Amino acid sequence: MECRPYLLHALSPLHVGTGQSVGVIDLPLARQKATGIPIVPGSSLKGVLRELRRPREESGSASGLHDAVFGPRRKKPGVEGDEPGDYAGALVVGDARLLALPVRSFVGTFALVTSPLLLALARRDLGALAEAWPVVAPLEGRRAQVASLKGSLVVYSAEGSAAAVYLEDLDLPVAQEPDTALATWAQGLAGLLPDAERELLTRRLVLVDDETMSFLWETATQVDTRVSIEPDTGTAADGHLWTEESLPAETLLVGVLGATGTFNAAPRKLTPDEVLGEALGGEGAVLQLGGKATVGRGRCRLSAWRPSVVGGAR
Fold it and tell me: pLDDT by residue (tens digit) across 204-219?
């Protein structure tokens, strides 16, 4: 199987949830069970890609290509059509896992916050490309690290006081020495963004300890209160008040796409690289994921790590 990691950049608040909750939030985000790290399930992304690449004509070579990549379409809608197809699609879509979370900052409006654990998990996903992305050492104690004190937009440093970052209600001292490993990650991730947006990442990226990061991914997400309106009266409907959790705009997530060659029963024969190319389309495709699409939620940019994107170089 050929694998290709991808970066998912939320351009608006993103809600991909579980549909139920036993906690205080009625519609929480989907999260990993053991760690609580927010994710976008691979099934959600695969469904969006399948619909995005669907050909206009239901028959012909384009339809056969689509079915070979994503699998044959259901012959019947609903539960009746939930039966095994004649062959499996060649595309495998893994979950997208949180990589950097935008957090309100006292200086610079917001910071993109990550941790050694999140970077280590991302590095594992990079597979053969991982050698160009350095290991980031764990931080000792409650503190933060930036790629460069001079270049950072989110570090507060007053005369006579140590440099610090202020995230939500947390104040974290910042190490004075530059972190070359974090700088490499910042430049590399920026290489996956459009040119005009690269400074958004390189000058706002902050590394915090894993304990602080786990607190932030539980408490620094966006929670909105919503209500249904009675069409006859224009007032709030009784009992129709709920809360909904989202990942804020500018969140970064990382995942892996995989592909095999198409199966013998498939209508088209494709190599794994051709399967991935067909699924991804052009660079930086903008997708809509999750709920509330009609009010602009869930706009995301999908960028693939290619062999030419190593350590930030294109």
Answer: 999 999 999 999 999 9
Cα gap 174→78, rounded to integer Å: 54
Which two three-digit tokens encode residue 127? Answer: 């597979």
Both tokens of 157, joined, read 């440093």
pLDDT digit string, tens, across residues 133-188: 999 999 988 999 998 888 899 999 887 788 999 999 999 999 888 889 999 999 99
Residue 314 lies in a domain: no
The count of domains in the chain is: 1
Residues with Cβ within 8 Å of residue 17, at least 6 apart in sequence:
27, 28, 29, 30, 244, 245, 290, 291
| Residue pair 275/1 in contact by the 8 Å Cβ criterion | no
Contacts of 186 (CB under 8 A, 6+ apart): 147, 201, 202, 205
| 44 CB-near residues (< 8 Å, 6+ apart) | 16, 289, 290
287 strand-pairing partners: 300
As a whole number of angstroms, the distance between CA 287 and CA 9 comes to 10
Structure tokens at 5: 């990691």
Give residue 235's identity as a one-letter amino acid code.
T
Per the structure, the complete domain to which residue 134 belongs is given by 2-74+85-304
- Six token digits for residue 262: 């198409």
* Residue 7 pLDDT > 50: yes
- Say if 248 falls within a structural domain: yes
